[in-house]
Amino acid sequence: MPQLNPEFFISQLFWLTIFFTFLLVFLWKVSLPRIATVIEKRQNKIDENLSSAKELQEEAHEIEKRINDRLNVAKEETNVKIKNTMSFLQEDASSQLNLLDKELEKKISTSEKQILINRDNQMEKINEEIVKITKITVSKLTDINLSDSDIEKEINSRKEALN
Amino acid sequence: MAAKDSPLKQFEISTISNIEVAGYNLSFTNSSFAMLITVLIITLFLTLTVNTRSIIPSRMQLISELMYNFIAQLLSDTVGDNGKKYFPFVFSLFMFVLIGNMIGMIPYQFTFTSHIIVTFGLAAVVFIGVTILGFLNHGIKFFSFFVIPGVPFYMHPLLIPIEVISYLSRPISLSVRLFANMLAGHTLLKVFAGFVVTMPFFTGAFPLAFIVALTGLEILIAFLQAYVFAILTCLYINDAYHLH
């Protein structure tokens, strides 16, 4: 078995020491720091991007919040304005209705008064006509000339009897 | 079977350049050459692929980063924050064993991890390093590592020697595991390769198909053994920090 032949043991150990030491020192001082730098650089870049993305997200949230706040304020303002306008319009409408009611009442009362006056006048005229007609009719039928006052008395007594 | 056809012939070391210093044979051999190729592949790959240092990595750069993260994760999982200091060592160890094993999967290439002296050398570095680390961290208290807490005192004379032996056999188990896996895999491949040639007519296709499947398995084992070597190193480092 060539492995157990001690002829080359020293030589193998010697070259192993040289090559392995060289490899260890080279990797330690040159290769590994390079790889470590690259990995660190990438990690930093990723962290940087992540943090900036986070900041942007926060900013976006802030803006969204501000927009919502403004929207809410605007909504409230609009609601208040709508309420004010509605109450103003209602008050205006009711006051105008009141005015119109009053005017209408006035007109109704004046009209009623006028109607009463007209009726009385008409009743008087009717009475006069009745007296005239009665006078003419009685004089034509009986040749008796009744005085106006008698006729009126008679009519009034009949009216009262009717009432 | 003739010696030149032996399945163990692939593990023979041949001298490329004869060097002798103070009576010691320090020849540059095919094993040394495989180590040189391994170190060159690792250093060139890890340096050139990360040369651009781009934030969005190329495929090759991604492979380097994946390996880096793989070992970094392994260390932080087993040792925790203390492990960061030993990252270059564990990473070098993992890459050295992994690429050494992988180079061995190329036909006619030498597998230096199939030599017990190489794997033992690596395991000894781990063992000595971890033991020194244990003494540096805990001083004389490090010996309490061999005393299992919660065990009746009369069991200690039995258990302490067992613990000491199991601790001392760590470099042996670590090195023999890697060496034996590589040796067995390559020997098996060679044996079946011999069948391909010696079997009559087209029946040689069956061992050939088996070799193809076995090669896939061997590549998996090549990775797995490197991983096991690295993870055991991590566990030993962890033991040096947390005795029990």
Low-confidence stretches of chain A: none
What is the number of helices of chain A? 2
Element string of chain A (H = helix, E = strand): HH
> If strands are numbered along the chain, what order do they take across the biggest sheet of chain B?
1-4
Number of helices of chain B: 7
**CA-atom Rg of chain B in angstroms:** 22 Å
Q: Mean pLDDT score of chain B, rounded?
A: 90
What brief labels describe this structure?
heterodimer, A: 163 residues, mainly alpha, 2 helices, rod-shaped, B: 244 residues, two-stranded antiparallel sheet, two-stranded antiparallel ribbon, 7 helices, globular
Please describe what this structure looks like:
The complex is a heterodimer of chains A (about 160) and B (about 240). Chain A has about 160 residues and is mostly helical. The N and C termini of chain A lie far apart (about 160 Å). Helices cover about 90% and strands about 0% of the residues of chain A. Chain B is mainly alpha-helical. Chain B has helices at about 30-50, 60-80, 85-105, 115-140, 155-170, 170-200, 205-240, and strands at about 15, 20, 25, 30. In chain B, the strands form two sheets. Chain B has a two-stranded antiparallel ribbon. In chain B, strand 2 and strand 3 (about 25) form a beta hairpin. In chain B, helix 2 packs across helix 3, helix 4 (about 115-140) runs antiparallel to helix 6 (about 170-200) and helix 4 (about 115-140) runs parallel beside helix 7 (about 205-240). The longest helix of chain B has about 35 residues, at about 205-240. The interface of A and B includes residues 16, 19 and 34 of A.
